[in-house]
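Supplementary Methods, section 5.1.

A reviewer requested that the exact input to the structure prediction be made available. We therefore reproduce it here, unchanged from the version used in the analyses.
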Amino acid sequence: MGGQFRDAGHLRAANLLTDGLSACLAASPAPAFSWQLAQGDGDDPALAQQTGYEVEVRDTRGALVWGSGPVASASQRGVPYGGPALADDSDFAWRVRIHDAAGRAGSWSSPHPFSTGLTDASWQAGWISRAPGGRAPLEIHNRALRVAGSPFLPLPCPAVRSVRIQARLRPVMGKAGMILRSSGPGTGVLLELGPAGELVLRRTPDWEIPSPAAPDSEVLGTAAPAGDRQPCPGSWQDLDIRDDGLTIRVSLGGTELLVVDVPASADSGERAALHQGPRSQAEYARLKITREVPGRSGTILLDHRFDAAEDDALASLAQWDRTTGHRQPDEWTLFRGTMALDGTVRRARLFVAAHHHAQVSVAGTPGLGTTSFGYPGEGYFDAADVTGVLAAHPAGTPVPVTALLHWYGPGQGRAAGVPGLLLRLSVDYDDGRRGVLVSGPGWRAGEAPYRQSGYRNDEGDPVEHLDGEAAASLDITEDLPAAISAGRHPTSDFPRLHARRTFLGGEFVAPRQFLAAKDGTLVADFGRVIPARPEVDFLAGVPGRTVMLRAGYVLRPDGRVDAGKTPSQNTDMSFPYTQTAGPQQFRASVHLGFRYLELPGVEAADVSRVGATTVYGSHPGEGSFTSSDPVLDEVVGLLRDSALYGVQEQFVDTPTREKGQFLADAANISYATMAFFGEHAYTAQALREFAWSARRYWNTGADKGRYNAVYPNGDGKRDIPDFSLMMPEWAEEYHLRSGDLGLVRELLPHLCDTADYAMRCIPAEGPTAGLVTRLGGGSGPYLHGIVDWPAPGRFGYDMECAATTTVNAQAYSALVSTARLCNTAGKEDAAVRYATAARALAGAIRGRLRVGGVMVDGLHEDGTPSSHASQHATSFPLSLGITDPGHAEADAARIAGMGMRQGPMTVHRLVRALVRQGRMDAVLDLLTAKDQPGWARLLDRGATFTWEAWDLAEGTDYSQSHAWSASVLKEILEHLLGIRYAVPGGTAVVIEPPLCRLEHARGSIPVDNGYVQASWRRRGSSVELECTVPPGTTATVRLPAGTYGVKGPTADAAPVPSAPLGTADGAAREIRVHTGTWIFTPR
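The structure derived from this sequence is encoded token-by-token as follows.
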């Protein structure tokens, strides 16, 4: 091939990427290279197809490290480096030249620089942390003492043998606990009070955070109020405990419920303490302790009224030990290190990993933020170029390096683990020397100025409470205690790190307007729901005053933020900030989703700036869509914003209450972000992480083929069966969008396990023979399959079926997608096996689940069909091509006539089913009708972010920032704009304007080489189309039957028709076109 390459080619490379990144500072030792194709003004668009390439990699001296030589290939994404492993923490540059359709080589691209990262053996740094403990999780909140997860918080009174404890309290999350007869943590007996008045007396368990739950222990007695006397969850309860050293008596609301003889032993202690299990919280309005002496009046040892005036409550709290030696539920740590510079800085790189989040500053300049919520061996590291900062630093002056580490504890989206920071700063001087600062011995660490203000919700998310007074008192010259080192990386807690390939975007946004509540409270309205970190600049502050900033989704009638269960997603959305004197800035470190931010007790004249910094995943591009229907355009805007804001460090359930990466949510949002934003990195990360969950938890026997429902997560092993079945179809869509066969091969063993998992649940005989029956896994409302969620989105689906239609359809999807991916990866035997199984299952679905001409919800255990025929039961098979062609049109008509009777989780199945049968007007009805559940009605109700459910049922915690119904952006672009991928990577597309009631539409979609654009307008029964195809891309244009004039990018440009352009024989026109702008005009 080398002989056919000549100069003056008509194609060049642009937008070079290393390991998927434009500015790559942590490339692997064998990186992958990608590029787009471009042409100059005088280049021939007919030659804009790559037939070959040549890549060179050089070091900083310009020496050739590796050259590919001429390679005959159209590949331009993920081209592998083929030389010797590149040295860690080093700089290189690569360039490429492209051979066009005529085989001629274009000019070399400009050298594109990149730096390598660190392999695990190269850090030469140690993981550091601080000693557990610090501020105790005790705070005055809304005229109550809030107590959060801790195994032992001693009461401030003397130890006594005979005692009476009276408390007015309420369990807010989980149970409230009181320890008696203790000599220290893990000793004595524990009385636990549940939200409905349930009482459990048991031996005190011994545990420490990050345990996900307090362990079981010997139960000594239980009791509960009679049904008509049970308190409502969240209500205040009056608890009375008497312990004379022999018998423990417990009354609730004046009624004695529990009497247990527990004679104290010789080694029993006499102390009392509060106890709150992990992710649990209680509030105390009053606490009174009396020493009891038989025959005499008792002696009051403690009488604290936290519901009294604030000064009195704080005076009571001042008597408590405000520190603890136990790990806090919300641990903040400040680290300090220094580095001496002894030369002229030529290059400096900062590498950081943390569990969970760290913000690092170098020489007082913010240098790098990093986040990692994964299990051991599944964490990430980040890199930053700090050359400019260090080059400008005064010579001979030590460089301070500081880090703020925030460890949230285990929770939704966060694996259990321990806090840790790993850091390496390398400095290259102009004389060739290298200096290195690494975390380890010599570093200092202390508690950062944050209070322990409890949990936001029962998912384990802590309330962030910055203590400005404590921060102001920090002396930067004060020596902190020595940091604790866990040893040089890698360690057992952190055995491996991965270079991050996903990055956050965001910007400061000011409120759209300021409002005043009826009581005068200042409320900032951002105009829409955003995931963001609030910011307030105060002109002055009152030392020690806590301002209770509160975010929210909606306002109460009085104009204040509504903190009720449903409006807040059952989440405490406050950002308490304790002020210091003088001008000061509040900057939240943690984001929530919200629209409003209220500032109680703050006048407009007290602040100079109020706003928020948004937090969302950064993507490489963005498509577009407008049409003749303004409601549809509003819906697309809603879906676009929801898809964008449904991603932060990972795909999330919601940015407020459940920041975990649920498999179904991730897949649905991914369909939207890949289609609209050209996103691949977050999807690759998520697919890989769910594969890690299979490797960690679902690797033997009947477990194989399943995945965690949410991963990473604080509650370990947990699945939802039909979520697991979504993986192969999602992986196949990723391959279509990215062309990344490498990740497909990595995932394929797990995907094959998933196909096998479905096949294991198909009985060969019996009442449900041939159908997936009682798909293994799940629990509670998800046992054997979730179907749709929240439950109202099931619209009456028959959950008693043993062989459900939705599960069987998704099992078919898993089988057929796995078969196709096996075939793509060259595993033909496996492909045949899964394709055969898919055909057999499809036949059983068609033959056994259609009753009286309609698809029913499934078969019961005895084989009798369900009497319910849901929309789900028809749309799932129809969307996947299972439905017999003879029934497809009638099925489409039936579900179109039903309107919207599926939830946001599965609505893309309904849209795909209608699209498959060409029912585009029915799709438009779903998208734009305000008189039924759907997106238009959400807009009509003021939504600016899609919801978890179509309706917010009062008393639920359904999310108002839930992106999973944004999945249909894919179908809008593919079938209403009319552009869809024809081959992996989008180097060939189909442009097919729809037949529907829209008059016109215009938009674009991102593909490997830029954007494919289309603008069409209805002209009677024909369509006028203008489309633009980028270099390296071809398009097949499909138009309604008719005669069309064609104008190409050049005077002699010629399309290649597969049906005659000049005839009107009733057949649709199909024309293949190359790079450039093409106009098709009906005649």
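The domain at 624-976 is CATH 1.50.10.10 (Glycosyltransferase). These observations are discussed further in the main text.
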